[in-house]
Amino acid sequence: MNQPQFSHSYLYKELKTLSKEINKENNHLKKLIQHPDRLNRFSIRINNFFYDFSKQRIDEYIFKKLIQVAREAKIKNRFLKMASGEIINVTENRAVLHTATRDFTQTPVFLNGEDIKLEINQVNEEIKTFSSKIHQKRIKGYAGKAFTDAVIIGIGGSYLGCEFIFNALKHSIKPIINLHFLPNVDIDNFGQIIKEINPETCLWIVISKSYTTTETMANIEQALLFLKDHHLDPANHLVTVTSKGSPGDDPSNPVLASFHMFDFIGGRYSVTSAVGGVPLSLAFGYDIFIRFLKGCHEMDLHASNAPEEKNIPLISALIGIWNSNFLVYAAQAIIPYCSALSKLAPHIQQLHMESLGKGTTMNGQSTDYKTGVIIFGEPGTNAQHSFFQFAHQGSPFPIEFIGVVNPVYKRNQTTSKGVYNHQELWANMIAQAQALAVGQDDENKAKYFSGNRPSSTILINDLTPESIGMLLSFYEAKTVYEGFVLGINPFDQFGVELGKILASDIRNQIGKKNIDMSYHFDSIDPVAKFYLDTLFKGSL
Amino acid sequence: MNQPQFSHSYLYKELKTLSKEINKENNHLKKLIQHPDRLNRFSIRINNFFYDFSKQRIDEYIFKKLIQVAREAKIKNRFLKMASGEIINVTENRAVLHTATRDFTQTPVFLNGEDIKLEINQVNEEIKTFSSKIHQKRIKGYAGKAFTDAVIIGIGGSYLGCEFIFNALKHSIKPIINLHFLPNVDIDNFGQIIKEINPETCLWIVISKSYTTTETMANIEQALLFLKDHHLDPANHLVTVTSKGSPGDDPSNPVLASFHMFDFIGGRYSVTSAVGGVPLSLAFGYDIFIRFLKGCHEMDLHASNAPEEKNIPLISALIGIWNSNFLVYAAQAIIPYCSALSKLAPHIQQLHMESLGKGTTMNGQSTDYKTGVIIFGEPGTNAQHSFFQFAHQGSPFPIEFIGVVNPVYKRNQTTSKGVYNHQELWANMIAQAQALAVGQDDENKAKYFSGNRPSSTILINDLTPESIGMLLSFYEAKTVYEGFVLGINPFDQFGVELGKILASDIRNQIGKKNIDMSYHFDSIDPVAKFYLDTLFKGSL
Lengths: 540, 540
Fold this sequence. Notes:
The structure is a homodimer of 540-residue chains. Helices cover 44% and strands 11% of the residues of chain A. Chain A has 540 residues and is an alpha/beta fold. Chain A folds into 3 domains: 6-72 and 306-492, 3-Layer(aba) Sandwich (Rossmann fold); 98-291, 3-Layer(aba) Sandwich (Rossmann fold), CATH 3.40.50.10490; 495-537. In chain A, helix 15 (421-438) links the parallel strand 12 and strand 13. In chain A, helix 1 (10-22) runs antiparallel to helix 4 (60-72) and helix 6 runs parallel beside helix 10. The longest helix of chain A is centred in the C-terminal third of the chain and has 22 residues, at 465-486. The N and C termini of chain A lie far apart (54 Å). Chains A and B meet through helix 8, helix 9, helix 13, strand 11 and helix 14 of A and helix 8, helix 9, helix 13, strand 11 and helix 14 of B.
């Protein structure tokens, strides 16, 4: 790949100039949005998904230039190459094929001469069979009891997406198997979960591509000891989701079931593979998982096929870059006006920040421009009563609002101040975007609102698996497109390696002392020594 | 108050100059921390609480200047004035006396000639009596069954602190009454909670200072209808925590119990008042609540009495200002290496961002410097597998690590790679701070780490109520001190008003259509009309 450094392009310089223009008082958002065609011009509706970027700080000309950035970087073409199996994750020498996990077309996807969709379908068939046997109580625990709960042992990309989807769907679909998440090596994460489950009716689902992740390995050990303490055979309680040939894929290590994941799907893009497929099919049934995949597929088709100027994730990516590199916002909030989407922000925090928080281009050069921003968020209206003071009067940051047209709970309700709760929720969502944009003059500076604070609003129809699938896939495609424009690799994560290496040195020291309590931490740096001495002393 | 604008002071200008100096390669953190006395010099230990700021990007001279900032602004003196009942929240004409709620000294605190500690103690006595009657099953629900659960109806400061403490303590102390939180006006928040409770054994605790908050009022209505549907008398199931004389304090409105909160305690500082006292005493027992208060008090004494250069919250505040205004970091992460502290970051996000996200000084001038930063966070090691790629190789931001010396779960455990889970957790915490500070050279730019990324580390001994209290009070005092230096009012929140006003206009429109479905939204702006039409149509 020979993409020139983003900041060296003539369009980058032109956008820098345009950003100075848009910063003038005359181009305040309150003026931009007054154009009668504004919403129509700066919004896109596809089936069951609506994206309103009319309150972003752009005008027709900037929009045109941003689209030109996308065209010149040929990012749509690269998206298609990605989906067709090209080795675009060059630093790890891998294809990137999360889209294949939900590709319901008849087109094969070849990798090394083989149609990987056949392999994916086979895993899905295995998930279907296994989950239905669990639901039909044809597979039970060692003590002969049907399963009621499952603990997911997995960290980062091995659980965040699944946790988001599980929480989003459990409002509308009663889980058959309740899911618990054990990502953290913190023993109190384990200690808390075992209070919530019955050992005889609980599955332990280990999700790890490499089956070497330190936290996951440590938690498997605790789970195995726990099963032993309760006289339960792991062969009846343990399920693995891992790469073919990993240490977890050893048939001599008996487990209840084992499912494959693939090296062409990165952790943070893996929720539509067996990583999400196994727990979500157990929780809600395989049919629900497939409906979720269909929603993802619909958005994938849009992301692949819609022209640049009508392409929701692509435009959203361009706006992300405009906001970070040209309007110099350091963060972006995701505020779903929907309790069920409470785990969306933590998932996108990983997806975006791990994909885009890079210091190196695909060409191996240091970046001298912003790659990604800090993502954070809480559901609205909660966030209004938490950090929205800062959003209105502190340092500005863009916000993405998400609204759901139809709530799940529709039984008898009462009104307050003349409106139903769901209407109140929307009144606030609409009002916040407006208030942030227009602001308000006041001689009393404490009641002065500068406004000019940008936001987007996404609407989905409901909390069905299909709608949630579209939302997930929207963010995946947006992240990928943003990486393509920035000229970085959104699929690797070398930045996490240094910490692992240093932790390993410290772990070795601890291990030595565990064997011989007279061991002193004299060979390590005095700060680490201080902390380890405190840990072993057991008090400050 | 006639504090000069912070940015106009000679110290501000001097710190600006010093920040240019510290940005030179020669003052890279990896060099600063090599000084053999570094940890000793830049850390403070008090009883059961340790604060290590040796990996902040400061040197002796900068530290001295920062302390001078605190001295010249007389912030310790103002802290004492606050605690003694002076009307320091001038924009709302109120005293600020959250410290009085946990003041176990014999010193009275006078407000308008009355010792408000008497009133506080009286409320606490009522909480003690009520919670113990509930626990002894002397007070039961309408159907004659003992209570098992309580739903907190309250938003923002009325629940975030309580949610943090409840989650922190429930790892070590089994709740007698399980708490659920209903902050959001989202009807699906309500719909989800009623799946988790038994109506006959559930208390509804309404927490609202004004008893007018829209979300809370709407949720009371749903709760009352729910009780009616289950033929339960609200007089046996409803508890209120509200201001004397508020609409919720009406004796003709029969409730099971009612507790007072005071206008001299702001929402985000209120967890040690009845706002936290009622639910936490119900959950864990009044004795536990008092132990928590004692921890807060201990930190309050330190915050009040320790000299500037030994004062943990004060120094932490100065470092926050140094990082935001001089090193120009836009955000700060809070990373507890402790699952039980998973709700700390959302609470501090409110406490910090609502207190400090201001655009106006106490003198009514617009600020031309940074007031507060974006606060976000997730527990470690989870965060390492989520956004730490960005922390190491993306745009830098300071991190506050929190470690707990002793875990709760201490039963039989097994090792992995030669170490116990809790040791693995600490190995990672130590390694991350080190990796961020020192970085690593590499010819391969993908494996290059610039380092020089600042962090602090806080240690507490355990997850006892006392330790959690110290942690809470540390953040409260830090926030207050930071506001004092910045010359802003950390106790008001006028920035949330504009959104409320605009929401009210939209609500009125919806109300009209609820009454007359032929009503058209023609009198409002076309964007709001589009959203409301979509909402009423029920599909995109």
